[in-house]
């Protein structure tokens, strides 16, 4: 499972689009997204309520505490919303120690209300935790003792008996409505492969639930079966994180292939770099470097999987090597070309792309004093490893090559010993 945050706009869009299918009832949610490219006139044509309602506007940037930070404006007309957005669009703010520009806003009707409720559903290893409080809103943390939580094991339906402890103290006139709402939201949560969904607060409008503020996360590994349900979903970068040109290039490659190509620069001046096959293996390699006390020297997080073809691996490897060899300073560096034991990926074929890139970048690898450590297993791995050994002799670069008899963590230790010896 990969938990990916989505914008509040998309959380509300998904809940609105699927609530009736799940529950048989409408959930009246109105919201609009505003970015630098938004044409307000076109937006009004699609969402005519914008010009006839009092509005709320706030950043939609994956950070919380917007109200307490003075970033929520209430009871505005459309002209005032436009002024609010213009004054803040592209401006850098600091939230939770992270700085970044505000690029996206959500606009909604202003909903006067007296009651504020809280619901939170979190997917866990063996099921889901469901929390509820009748004291929701910006002070939920100060009223955490009033939050009730139940745990629902995987495969168990949420029925009236199980949900009863959450709504036990509600007034009788609203208890059935909120009980049904919790059950429906949980069913929707499971159906759409949410991993996290929080409404803080939601209220009642004309006796019907209305989410005012929402946060959501999806399991992006379930995209293959949910692409129609999710529609044009966006998984934004965390607030304050901006892709470099090289990261954007790999992201573009990733979007054009059925394989998976991931690359994140952690420290451009790091002396340990990775080019790892397999999502699980890539985490093990990165964690091992950190566990051995060298997280500050880890240059990147990288992962390729899903049997990319030779040309895709070539383009990918070029980028990793260019970053790993930038600004040589005479000190030794290490590149870990690792992976677990592949199930179906042809190791020799993917290594062909890496070998071609290393031949192209021979002078850069030598200038950066790069030492390369290879560990891999799987189909055709003997042939792939033999080619890697031959490459070291051909271009005169130190390449240590191991098969599945070596441990994944072992070559991380060797890479650390290499750079430590020259420190």
From TrEMBL:
Gene3D superfamilies in UniProt: 3.30.470.110, Succinyl-CoA synthetase domains
Return the EC number: 2.3.3.8
Where is it located?
A: Cytoplasm, Cytosol
Q: Does the keyword ATP-binding apply?
A: yes
GO MF terms on file? Answer: ATP binding; ATP citrate synthase activity; succinate-CoA ligase (ADP-forming) activity
Keywords (alphabetical) are:
Acyltransferase, ATP-binding, Cytoplasm, Lipid biosynthesis, Lipid metabolism, Nucleotide-binding, Transferase
Q: What does this protein do?
A: ATP citrate-lyase is the primary enzyme responsible for the synthesis of cytosolic acetyl-CoA, used for the elongation of fatty acids and biosynthesis of isoprenoids, flavonoids and malonated derivatives. May supply substrate to the cytosolic acetyl-CoA carboxylase, which generates the malonyl-CoA used for the synthesis of a multitude of compounds, including very long chain fatty acids and flavonoids. Required for normal growth and development and elongation of C18 fatty acids to C20 to C24 fatty acids in seeds.
Q: What is this protein called?
A: ATP citrate synthase
